[in-house]
């Protein structure tokens, strides 16, 4: 009896001493199904498909969710935006595949979808330090194309501890290697993840920084750049104010 108690205690200690990811790995990665609506839009960056996806409520563990986004038409396989009738197309990503069935007419569509997470991606992400990814998280990573290549690019730039939320935000707001290296070339090193997203949200890039420097504003911090953008202060405004004060 005493031996059994000792063995049980050891097993409990071993279990409790495991990293939290060891428990998270048991999270179920089930398919996600639901309804979709879509509309083809012409933009300055080409034709895009604006979509709204609503998931089906499965049980008390998974309530319905909604995603709205737009993607270039070329991201989809089998999509005919000019179709007039039944259609089937797919969004194939490393994180998984989304299959769409429904109807298209006049550049608008409606139907049902099914997302199937990729087991290979789940394993690869676990090896990169991301364990216990839920189906909903994998779905978002698929929609916004968070890949292992992108994760490795960020790690190579020193962003080793990004959350999956950070990674998804980076993809949504186009925080990429080119942007980070460009800002570093201007002296902005080690910008926190949330600040990188904020810079992108406010459309702050190399051109804006150079414009301010040419107007005489040097050594600005990332926070100061954001404040100037919020209040609509740019190089032209600064030059006008200097002219008024002469």
Overall residue-averaged pLDDT value: 87
Distance between the termini: 93 Å
**How many beta strands in the DSSP annotation?**
6
**DSSP helix fraction:** 40-55%
Structural account:
20% of the residues are buried. The chain folds into two domains: 32-132; 173-244, no CATH class. The protein has helices spanning 2-16, 20-24, 119-127, 135-143, 148-156, 164-172, 177-185, 193-201, 206-214, 222-230, 235-244; strands at 32-43, 46-55, 66-72, 85-93, 96-105, 108-117. Strand 1 and strand 2 form a beta hairpin. Helix content is 41%, strand content 24%. With 246 residues, it is α+β, with helices and mostly antiparallel strands. The N and C termini lie far apart (93 Å).
SSE layout and pairings?
Elements: H1 2-16, H2 20-24, E1 32-43, E2 46-55, E3 66-72, E4 85-93, E5 96-105, E6 108-117, H3 119-127, H4 135-143, H5 148-156, H6 164-172, H7 177-185, H8 193-201, H9 206-214, H10 222-230, H11 235-244
Antiparallel strand pairs: 1-2, 1-6, 2-3, 4-5, 5-6
Task: Summarize the entry for a quick read.
With 246 residues, the chain is an alpha+beta fold. The chain has helices at residues 2-16, 20-24, 119-127, 135-143, 148-156, 164-172, 177-185, 193-201, 206-214, 222-230, 235-244; strands spanning 32-43, 46-55, 66-72, 85-93, 96-105, 108-117.
């Amino acid at each position: 009896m005493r031996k059994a108690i000792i063995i049980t205690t050891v097993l409990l200690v071993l279990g409790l001493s495991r990293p939290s990811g060891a428990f998270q790995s048991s999270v179920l990665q089930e398919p996600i199904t639901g309804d979709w609506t879509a509309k083809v839009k012409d933009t300055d960056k080409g034709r895009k498909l604006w979509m709204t996806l609503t998931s089906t409520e499965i049980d008390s563990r998974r309530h319905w969710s909604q995603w709205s986004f737009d993607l270039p038409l070329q991201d989809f396989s089998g999509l005919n935006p000019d179709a007039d009738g039944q259609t089937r197309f797919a969004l194939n990503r490393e994180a998984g595949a989304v299959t769409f069935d429904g109807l298209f007419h006049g550049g608008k569509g409606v139907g049902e979808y099914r997302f199937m997470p990729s087991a290979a991606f789940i394993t690869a992400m676990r090896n990169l330090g991301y364990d216990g990814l839920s189906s909903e998280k994998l779905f978002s990573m698929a929609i916004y194309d968070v890949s292992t290549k992108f994760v490795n690019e960020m790690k190579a730039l020193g962003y080793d501890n990004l959350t999956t939320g950070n990674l998804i935000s980076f993809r949504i707001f186009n925080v990429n290697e080119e942007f980070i290296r460009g800002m570093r070339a201007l002296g902005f090193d080690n910008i926190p993840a949330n600040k990188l997203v904020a810079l992108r949200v406010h459309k702050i890039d190399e051109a804006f920084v150079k414009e301010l420097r040419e107007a005489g504003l040097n050594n600005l911090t990332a926070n100061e750049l954001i404040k100037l953008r919020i209040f609509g202060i740019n190089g032209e405004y600064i030059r006008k104010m200097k002219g008024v004060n002469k």
